[in-house]
Write a structure and sequence with these properties.
It is built from seven helices and no strands. It has about 130 residues and is an all-alpha fold. Helix 5 runs parallel beside helix 7 and helix 6 packs antiparallel against helix 7.
């Protein structure tokens, strides 16, 4: 995983993409872990554009890669099928939201719909 984070950080730096928030740290995250823990689970009720700020560098960099998105959605689906909502964290919320807002590839509307549905399910789970 660290190799993928390092590769994604290099791509991010090479492309000189301006992030709407802080730059990504060496761990691939925009925010420190204690802050990510602090805002969870309240982040589940925030607007999707605010949730998307918590994306990690791997998802940010590979957001337009259909095979990456397919794998990400498949993994999320497996968690939902097994009722593993406790496996989701602030970064997972950010990744789903970021893809929902920014993915422009094949089957764009379906991917957005699936990600939004996952986010709604997580929100409902943590409302209880």
């Amino acid at each position: 995983m660290q190799k993928l984070i390092n590769k994604s950080l290099k791509i991010f730096a090479r492309d000189k993409v301006k992030s709407p928030s802080k730059k990504f740290g060496s761990n691939g995250l925009r925010y420190n872990v204690s802050y990510l823990k602090k805002v969870f689970p309240t982040v589940t009720g925030w607007p999707i554009n605010q949730q998307a700020l918590f994306v990690d560098v791997v998802t940010y960099t590979h957001c337009q890669d259909p095979s990456f998105i397919q794998n990400m959605v498949f993994e999320a689906h497996n968690f939902f099928e097994n009722n593993n909502y406790q496996c989701f964290n602030t970064t997972a919320i950010g990744n789903l939201a970021f893809v929902a807002v920014n993915y422009k590839g094949i089957d764009k509307e379906n991917v957005k719909e699936v990600c939004v549905k996952f986010l709604e399910n997580i929100k409902e789970y943590y409302k209880k």
